[in-house]
Amino acid sequence: MAIKISERCTTVTFLSRASLNIFLVCAGDSDLTISSSDGVLFKLHRKHLEVHSDVFADAENATLPANGADEVVVLSETSSVLDVLFQYMYRQPQPNLQLVEFSVFAGVAEAAEKYMVYSALPAVLIRMRRYLGSYPLQVLDYAARHNYKDLANKAVRSTVGLTLAEAGKNLSPDTFLKWVRIFYQNYFFFGLHITEKLPGNFL
């Protein structure tokens, strides 16, 4: 259920777990309302989103003031993801991604790519490298789909020993097929486990 925005539009806030600071959902002078997939309404400033996101800058009719103050732009991301993402579009300390659980972080990474929020991408890539050991398949999938060659080539080496079932669950279809092809061409399978080390480059 969406948060009800008060007429004064100054007291409704969302606690960001990424920064442990209050990030405004409802700015009093906002001119753009965005709804997350779980119904949280973010009252934001169009100018910040247009400056920091190529997608919002090109949205034209979706972000025109002439559409009226009551219009709501609905996005497919959750409020937890958008709360972190929108902080990269404001002049304030950036969120600490170390405090963000991986499922939310992965959503932020995808949203930063989707909406072309370039200010978020360097921090996302640094954090992705930290997850090579604990989430190698997810990092590989992200890197492969967004053409980060160095990251993908490092991630694929961390997938040695993982099962086909694990790979199929965590990789997108195109990435999974390429992953299987690389290992089948160069290595032997016993049961469902890869027994060799260090495949060649993925990208």
Automatic annotation (TrEMBL):
Residue span(s) of domain BTB: 30-90
InterPro entries registered for this protein in UniProt: BTB/POZ_dom, SKP1/BTB/POZ_sf
Top-rank taxon, per record: Eukaryota
Protein name: BTB domain-containing protein
